[in-house]
Amino acid sequence: MLHSHLTTLNAVSLVLDAFSADGIHQQVLLAGSGIASADLHQPDTRITTRQEMRVCANAVALRRDLGLDLGQRMHVSSYGMLGYALLTSATFGDALRLALRYPALLGTLFELSLEEDGQRIWFTASDYREDPALAAFNIELCLVSLKVICDDLLGQPLPLLGARFDYPAPAYQARYRERFTCPLQFQAAGNAFAFDRHWLDQPLPLADAITHRAMAERCRKQNTEFTGRQAWLGRVRQLLASQLHAAPGLDRLAEQLNCSSRTLRRHLHDLGSSYQELLDELRFERAKQWLAEDAMPIHCIAEQLGFSETASFRHAFVRWSGVAPSQFRP
Questions:
Q1: Within the chain, where are the H helices?
Q2: pLDDT confidence of 43, banded at 50, 70, 90?
Q3: pLDDT band at 89 (very low <50, low <70, confident <90, very high)
Q4: Do 178 and 92 fall into the same domain?
Q5: Looking at 63, 87, 104, which one is the last position of a domain?
Q6: 166: Cβ–Cβ under 8 A, 6 or more apart, which residues?
Q7: The pLDDT of residue 6 is above 70
Q8: What does the pLDDT look like over 271-307, one tens digit per residue?
Q9: Which InterPro entries match (predicted)?
Q10: 40 falls within a domain
């Protein structure tokens, strides 16, 4: 099953804000995402990771170091109830452990963990499975935003002991020192930043036991609802993924899910998706996998994905990725 999930519009809104002073029209950044301008004014709107990444890809094409700037804008208040639950925790360690309990509410694309290394604690982001072309952007965004959250919780900058990244130093690596004032290591074994373990016991300046209990309970309920919706979407994806060679269509898929096509369409719309978007996403993921393995001819891939003509597949792949299937091969 795809490592894809629902998230909020926080990151998309920040992308649009980052370009608002540059005269870049919203539609340029939203192109191909299926997100309408009206969606931006609905606070409860949920979108898929694929939609968020389409906007980010449009933005990174205009500004390569965007992840460093976006991460700096993602304060703890960007995370709604979870943000308030973190701020009112008793200690810094309590807040971090609560954040790790609800990754769906953080909207992260990574598996986050706290790893002990003697007196150091490494705040680690691993298990990234999205678009490889956006890996550096997403790692920058993730680690910088986590550092900002840490600073917000403490009410002061968290002193870092080191930061490491699993890719080569980019041309703009000097900008990393603006965000991580510590020794940097590129082409490392993982992606993380470290701080002294004594900070875990640091009392938080905005700690409030009563407010914290109320916010933590609301987070628990929201997470249950949120993950339930993700599980349903995962079931739809899994069912559709098993039939890519002969896609069933919306009506037949609804029958397989024991619901009406109208209900299925409405649920997908509420989750920021559609039948065609799911089908395209699954075809794209499978196509990338087979092309990377370099064992199956392109015309066979087209056939297995349900395309009646190889030319139709080539056209679709260019629309999805910006390059022809032959160019995607290793």
A1: 10-19, 26-30, 49-60, 66-73, 80-87, 92-101, 103-106, 135-154, 176-179, 209-241, 249-256, 261-270, 275-293, 298-304, 310-321, 325-328
A2: low
A3: very high
A4: yes
A5: 63
A6: 139, 187, 188, 189, 190, 191
A7: no
A8: 777 899 889 989 988 998 899 887 899 999 999 999 9
A9: AraC-type_N, Homeodomain-like_sf, HTH_AraC
A10: yes
Residue 1 banded pLDDT, cuts 50, 70, 90 = very low
Q: Are residues 57 and 79 in the same domain?
A: no
Please tell me the least confidently modeled range out of 46-55, 80-89, 176-185: 46-55
Q: Which two tokens stand for residue 279?
A: 């089908």
The answer as to whether 329 is a domain residue is yes
In this structure, is residue 229 part of a structural domain?
Answer: no
In a domain, 130, yes or no: yes
| Burial label, 248 (beta-carbon count in 10 A; 0-12, 13-18, 19+) | middle
Q: What is the C-alpha to C-alpha distance for residues 236 and 146, in angstroms, rounded to an integer?
A: 32
* CA 127/CA 114 separation, integer angstroms: 14
Same domain, 136 and 157: yes
Q: What are phi and psi of 209, to 5 degrees?
A: -60, -40
Residues 111 and 150 in one domain: yes
Question: 327: domain CATH number?
Answer: 1.10.10.60
